Input
Amino acid sequence: MLKVENLYAGYNGIDVISNINFEIRKGESFCVLGPNGCGKSTLLKSIARIIDYRGAVTMDSDDISALPRKALAKKIALLSQGANPAGSAQIFFPYTVYETVSMGRYAWSQGFLKNLTTEDKNIIEEVTRKLDIWEIKDRMIDELSGGTLQRVFLARTLAQMPEIILLDEPANHLDLKHQIELLEFLKTWVKENNKILIGVFHDLNLARLFGDSAVILCNGSIAAGGRINDVLKSEILNAVYGIDIYAFIQKSFYSWK
Output
C-alpha cells in the first residue's frame, strides 16, 4: 500500500499543495484530476522525491524519505510531461530506441548501458513489444514522432520495474487508437503485476477508462476522492470545473452511440 499523509509541497517557500491524504492499494490505477495549476504535477514530484515536501509518503510502511536514491528508483518511477520534448531538436543526446529503454534498468545494473543481464534484456524486449516499438528498436529517437517518442519513454519507465509508477498526462501526443490501447494495457499491467499506478489526467473520459479510484485537486487541496465513477458524478467536480462535468461526459459518450 502507498500512503500519503499530511503532504505539503511547493516552490520557493510557497506551498502549492497542502494537507494531502490518501491511500492506494497494490493493483490499483489511481487518477489525479483537477484544473490547470491546482498542484497535480507537484503532487507527483513530491511522491517521487524530486522536490522537498513536509508530511509522510510510505510504501508498505517504509518511509521513502529514508531510501537512498538507487533504492528509491527500484520503488518509484516518474514519467513527467517534460520527458517528451516538443521536437527532436530538443533531444540533446540521441540514442536508439533500445538504448533509451535500457536506461530504465540503470537502478538494477552495474552501469549505464553496460553488462545488461538476460533478465534485463528480457524485460526490455517485453515492454518494447507490448508498446509496439520493438520493430524500431534500432532507430534513433530524434527521428521519431511525438507519439512514438512518448511510447519509448513510457517503455523506459516500465523497464524500471518499480512498485509505483507516476505518469503525468501519459496519453499526451498519442492518437485516439494509441490512447485507448495504452490505457487498457497499463490498467491490465498494473493488476497482473500487482503494481500501483498514479496518473494525472485532464481528459476525464480517459480517466474513467483508466482509473479505479481518484482524487480531485482544487487550489492545492483535495476537494473529493473515492471510486472513479463516484468522483465523476460528484457535485464537487462541477464546482471545481464550473460546469456540469458529468452531464458533459454522458453527452459526449452517448453522442457516439
Notes: The first strand starts at residue 2 and ends at 11. Residues 27 and 191 are 4 Å apart (CA to CA). Strands lie at 2-11, 14-24, 29-33, 53-59, 62-63, 76-79, 164-168, 196-200, 213-218, 221-227.
